[in-house]
Design goal:
Length: about 150
């Protein structure tokens, strides 16, 4: 596998998880409703994740490939569990717990990819940006849960 092909595979993998994250924030936003104070936070994260996905899609296209276009099956399952858990534990608490779990998973996944020395400079820069976003999301989720 060439370096370019490797970068495409890595970016597509992380992009799928970013799409899951974006969709998770959409689920959280829908759970709490438009009037809830947390909704502004969720909407801001949705935009940020969409921006990261677009950047990665653009990079994959510049490598001459077709970027991933949908979230993963695991992300779909996570959103369903989030919805059912909201029924039993209260919407805000469930949304924040799901958000924190998702941010932790995203940050760990990206950090693992960044340890790989085979990743090219452009892909590494995008991954660092995505990791900073995930770590920021982790910190905010902890603050909001307190």
């Amino acid at each position: 596998m060439s370096m370019k092909d490797y970068d495409i595979a890595v970016l597509n993998d992380v992009m799928t998880t970013l799409m899951d994250s974006r969709n998770g924030y959409k689920t959280c936003s829908n759970l709490v409703g438009n009037a809830h104070p947390l909704n502004r936070f969720f909407l801001r994260r949705i935009k940020e994740r969409e921006s990261l996905v677009v950047e990665m899609q653009t990079a994959v296209e510049s490598y001459g490939s077709v970027p991933e276009g949908s979230s993963s099956f695991g992300g779909t399952i996570h959103r369903v569990v989030t919805h059912f858990s909201s029924v039993f534990r209260g919407e805000e608490k469930a949304a924040l717990a799901a958000l924190q779990n998702g941010e932790d998973f995203l940050a760990e996944k990206i950090a693992e990819r960044l340890e790989d020395e085979k990743i090219g400079a452009e892909a590494r820069t995008l991954l660092k940006k995505a990791l900073a976003s995930a770590r920021d999301g982790e910190r905010l989720a902890v603050q909001l849960s307190a």
